[in-house]
Amino acid sequence: MVLDDGEENQGLFDDLLSGEPIFENKEVLRPSYTPHELPHRNDQINRMATILVSALRGETPSNILIYGKTGTGKTASAKFVSQELESTSQKYDVPCEVEYINCEVTDTQYRVLAQLANTFIEKNQRIIANRLDHYRDRRSAAIDDPTVLTDTEFETLDDLDDRIDELEADAEEMEEVPMTGWPTDRVYSTFFEAVDYHERVVVIMLDEIDKLVEKSGDDTLYNLSRMNSELDRSRISIMGISNDLKFTDFLDPRVKSSLGEEEIVFPPYDANQLRDILQHRADIAFKQDALTDDVIPLCAAFAAQEHGDARRALDLLRTAGELAERSQAEIVAEKHVRQAQDKIELDRVVEVVRPLPTQSKIVLFAVILLEKNGVHNINTGEVFNIYKRLCEEIDADVLTQRRVTDLISELDMLGIVNAVVVSKGRYGRTKEMGLSVPVEETEAVLLSDSRLGDIENAQPFVQARFDN
DNA sequence: TATCCACCGGAAGATATGGGTC
DNA sequence: GACCCATATCTTCCGGTGGATA
């Protein structure tokens, strides 16, 4: 862009950069940050450390199950202990590794095993490459002066060559597991061989383990928990993290007893504890005197209402800071926290609704239309009727009512609608539902989807149903 | 008290897709 | 190219369900 008549050329970002920044280090307020100190979680951290210390003695630690609601510091504490464990293992030269898997993303047996197999294959290849470098250097030296092999594991140059060939063959044999296509037992044996390639204790951290069990049953946990009896060189231990206290009810009793050898519960934080946590992070995240006195108590109070969710509290504080910075305010004030609360709520709707499959969006649109037409206690039959009309109008496939009830249940689980099964006696049994998200904003997100663009034109046809 | 409604929701299987192996 | 495997999505079938009503 060219600015006229000799004005000083102010770039797009110059204005934004000209104000005093409020943040010193915003990253410490993000969920991905693992803090060095976790206030009010000493007991749980010490308990984990007491259990895992046996890994540093080369023994197999007991499997651990960690429970607690969202934002109670489970993952952060477990990651903190893992980092400490790995750094201590390096200090004392004990082979001990922790592998983190988020089961919300990696939610099938195949994917979990494939991810683990590929991680260990990569590690083994690095180890082999280092050893090869070392042996090749030694070989070069031995060609000039064969006495360098004296007092080593190799008596002759041929022995050394054999070892190099062996390692090269090992590296070649290690084949990465593809995203799909292999039978699961082949993926399992590939992982088994990769992890057992050399002596080590491995802690497999399965975050949101309940999602894995919900989606693909307990086969993965069964296979992992019985591996130790077959491994020669290595040992594995499982650390499961779950939001759901009852997920073990669905497990095979053998898996249940093996997995829950040790259980650690993370209770929700109260408002005072949240205030401590926020203060702790705010000291690092913000410039001095960048917050008014009421900002942290308000963030803590909002988050305490959300079942003591520290992640929410930190999110709120970060967003309030960003909003203050955007409005070029010098300090973060109470109004920014309130604006942040609204923004987070709206962002959540957009984030959940936008990626929905088209069919779910049509079902949701049917619920919105009913709600906008003043229908209270919307039931499955009504939703299905409107849904069919909408599909016809926009030329989409019409799914069966059975499938639509599943889509409604999914919307319920996502917190977009609130559905309850009610019996109306002679008038049958159905699900009654209402929207749990703002109508206008949700409708706008749905209409922004090009595949649903025509749905706006279909509304008069649906309206006619209410007029008749 | 038996009947009935309008679904719910589990189970099994079909189909499609994306990948691999031989 | 035929076949195998994992996964996602969807259909079909069918046994509940529970409170109003006859």
From TrEMBL:
Domain (Cdc6 C-terminal) ranges: 364-446
Binding site for ATP: T72, G73, K74, T75, A76, Y269, R281
Molecular function via GO: ATP binding
GO BP, one annotated term: DNA replication
Domain of life from the UniProt record: Archaea
Pfam family, one: AAA_16
HAMAP family for the chain: ORC1_type_DNA_replic_protein (MF_01407)
Family: Belongs to the CDC6/cdc18 family.
The protein's name: ORC1-type DNA replication protein
Provenance organism: Halorubrum aidingense JCM 13560
